[in-house]
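fyi for ur records
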Amino acid sequence: MFYEFAKRTIDIIGSLVGLVVFFPVCVIAAIAIELESPGPVLADTPKRSGKNGKQFRLLKFRSMIPNAHNLLHSDPRFKKLLEEYKKSSYKLHDDPRVTKVGKFIRKHSIDEIPQFLNVLRGEMSLVGPRAYYPFELEEQQKKYPHTKKLVEEVLKVKPGITGEWQVSGRSEINFDKRIEMDANYARKKSISYDMMIIAKTPLAMITGKGAI
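which gave:
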C-alpha cells in the first residue's frame, strides 16, 4: 500500500534527520539532567500500548526525580497526587516530582527527542495518536465507557511523536476528547495530513502551548 510505504519512508528519513539536527540539544539536555538530579538520563516508565496493542518501551529524557513512577504509586507522600493523577485523565499540571530542568524540556518537547529511536525501530511514527499506558486505557474506558470503540480505532495505527491534539495546544483536554481526536486521525490518516501536522510542530515546541 502506497500510504504505508510512503509513511515509513518519511519516518525513517525524518527520524534520522531529527537525531542529527537535535544531537547537540540532546547532549546539553543529558548533562543538565544529570547535574540537577543524578540518576538515569532516560525516564524509567512502564511500557506503552503501540499498534494492535503491542507494548513497547517509549524513550524519553527523564524530566522527574529518579524512580518517579514507582514513588507515585507506592509512597504515602504522593497518595493525594495519585488520586489527582487518575481524576485528571493521567495529566498533572503541578507535579512536585518534575525537576527544574524537566519543566523546561517538557515545555519545549525536548524530552520527546529520544523517541526518534522508537520511530527507527518501527514502534512509533513521526505523526500519530498519543502512546497511552495500558493501565491508562483500561481505567479511562471505565470512566468513559463510550470511548471503547475509539480506543480500538486508535490502536490500529502506530502512536506518534507528534499529533493533532499536541499541535493544536489542546493537551490539557480530558481523555474522552483526546481519544476522539486521536481516533479522528486514525480515520483520516494521509501523507498530506501528516505533513500539515509536522509543519505545525516546530511552533508548538517553541511556544510550549498546551504543554504539561
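The beta strands are 48-49, 55-56, 125-127, 160-162. thats all i got for now
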